[in-house]
């Protein structure tokens, strides 16, 4: 398949460390031989923190550290108008598309899109929410606790009358600031929020234990039971061992109590820990870099997040070695699973909320391609045991909330799913490809060394579509800002 005109390679210098922030360390996914390893398995969820973190660095005039750039977070930050599931009993609509790669001659991109069943506000289960708020000394700046307070002021009016809200805070110690309160009592909730002040250490482990005890004591089987932790991620008092914190959270997840984590600040942000804990809690992580983002997370997104439609969601894709020589997954470096983990229901996957879209993009090289990244084995035949015209086959495994048994949906991918040119694909496909390419440029990925920020900006700009809230136009501006910072 054809490719976009190549531009001169652009070297992207890594900026000096801007803070003591901690991000998950993971190398970009490499090319894999389909003959030797035809199966790729990942956990699917919708974490959006990575995009907002990248945006904050760029707005402050710095290129983000490589580890702060997660391609899956960036692609999945945006809403997409993919075909939507019609029935919550089968909560996903799966759409696969193959398009020419804009940055690798002769390669294709396998674009896998999921769109969840969407619950309306009036039909969603009532919410039983426990807010766990970090009020330690590091949360004093305006971009931390004050930002969380502003976000809660925007969120409270969207509560339903039968929702329940509790507030637990932690610093040197732990305090229950608000006992379970009905959503109709907005003034009481806001008075508790306005009373918060920052100061002291960070006893996050004890805070988690208290919040879970609070949520469990008021657990309702007919409600969505969720803890929402807002912090800069710095746990330095009490239980701070990540593994033990994960075990606590995973145990409560099995009881039906989910976890959402909201990160703030930059200088001591522990994004790595936040990602681990959110995954253990079968929940999502988000990052607040502005009042506008706070509104997006609390008002536009949290309503969907509060209504899980699938737990422990995993994807496994098998590539046909008679068609595919090599493949690589763009992003998802921290969500890789072993092949056997797909059928092992004791291995956690991701949680998907109502109306959420999930995108995964693989780059594939066909058999016979001039480019070669993995030297073939001498005695390995690159042929399928069962000849097929399919390029790949996708399985999605998940559990409906409250159910023990997992279910699967699956789909084959062939030339029937392909477009001859990238321009012929939908706006959503082209825009998500632009975001994936931008993320790779920021990560200095050699796979896009023949591509440029200008090409990424042009592709994104041409695929903005309706863009009611201006999120896609903002991305185009960020790409151009990154180009200027890269020199």
Provide a descriptive summary of the structure in words.
It contains eleven helices and 17 strands. The chain is α+β, with helices and mostly antiparallel strands. The protein folds into two domains: 32-119 and 310-486, no CATH class; 126-306, Rossmann fold (3-Layer(aba) Sandwich), CATH 3.40.50. Strands 2, 11, 13, 14, 16 and 17 form a six-stranded antiparallel beta sheet that branches. A hairpin with a 7-residue loop joins strand 3 and strand 4. Helix 6 runs parallel beside helix 7 and helix 9 packs parallel to helix 11. The longest helix has 16 residues, at 427-442.
SSE order and pairing:
Layout (H helix, E strand, L loop, with lengths): L31 E2 L5 E5 L5 H11 L11 H6 L15 E9 L7 E9 L9 E9 L10 H11 L8 E7 L3 E9 L3 H9 L9 H14 L5 E9 L10 H13 L2 E7 L7 H10 L4 E3 L3 H15 L2 E12 L4 E7 L5 E2 L12 E4 L3 E10 L25 E8 L7 E7 L13 H16 L10 H9 L9 H16 L1
Parallel strand pairs: 5-6, 5-8, 8-9, 9-10
Antiparallel strand pairs: 1-12, 2-11, 2-13, 3-4, 4-15, 6-7, 11-14, 11-16, 12-15, 16-17
Q: How can the largest sheet be summarized?
A: 6 strands, antiparallel
What structural class should be given to the helix and strand makeup? alpha+beta
| Continuous helix count | 11
Please state roughly what percent of the residues sit in beta strands, choosing from under 5%, 5-15%, 15-25%, 25-35%, 35-45% or over 45%. Answer: 15-25%
Order of helices and strands: EEHHEEEHEEHHEHEHEHEEEEEEEHHH
Low-confidence stretches: 1-18
Query: What would the average pLDDT be, to the nearest integer?
Result: 86
The tally of beta strands, per DSSP, is 17
Report the radius of gyration as a whole number of Å: 22 Å
What best-fitting shape do the alpha-carbon axes yield?
A: globular
Residues in helices, as a percent range: 25-40%
Our measurement of the CA-to-CA distance between the termini, rounded to an integer number of angstroms, reads 32 Å
Count of discrete structural domains:
2
